[in-house]
């Protein structure tokens, strides 16, 4: 979800049906600090995802090209440490979360490993179903495990609203 309060309702609607959350964190100086601050959007989005039952999480540390120096390993590690600490407090196990340094602007570590971050040896996650590892964001997405679905149960559909229309009746949406 874009980091703006106006979009939180949309984020909640989408997240309630998600198998995985991808938390994109800005690595730029000041941007990360604003997002992870007490009332920051990074905290709010991570908490909402967990509260709405999304058990799998990927963290993309974006804008690595705008760190000082560009593509800074120390900045990535600082962000990883702080985000790990926060997500652990809300209920995620950081060992099951892939942290990937990326630059969406340049496409670094999105679909294939970046030559600009030779220090990044890849991400790895440990879970009861087994380990997974990779170097790019797309590999982290591909490693998501689909949750067990109660296919033997009756169909359930989420409703967003209900309208009572005269002459027609009740219309669920």
Automatic annotation (TrEMBL):
GO molecular function: GTP binding; GTPase activity; translation elongation factor activity
InterPro entries noted in UniProt: P-loop_NTPase (IPR027417), T_Tr_GTP-bd_dom (IPR000795), TRAFAC_GTPase_members (IPR050100)
UniProt keyword list: Elongation factor, GTP-binding, Nucleotide-binding, Phosphoprotein, Protein biosynthesis
Pfam family membership, one: GTP_EFTU
Residue intervals of the Tr-type G domain: 1-151
Top-level division of the source organism's lineage: Eukaryota
SUPFAM superfamilies on file: P-loop containing nucleoside triphosphate hydrolases
GTP-binding among keywords: yes
Protein name: Translation elongation factor 1-alpha
Organism the protein comes from: Eois sp. 18548
Organismal lineage: Eukaryota, Metazoa, Ecdysozoa, Arthropoda, Hexapoda
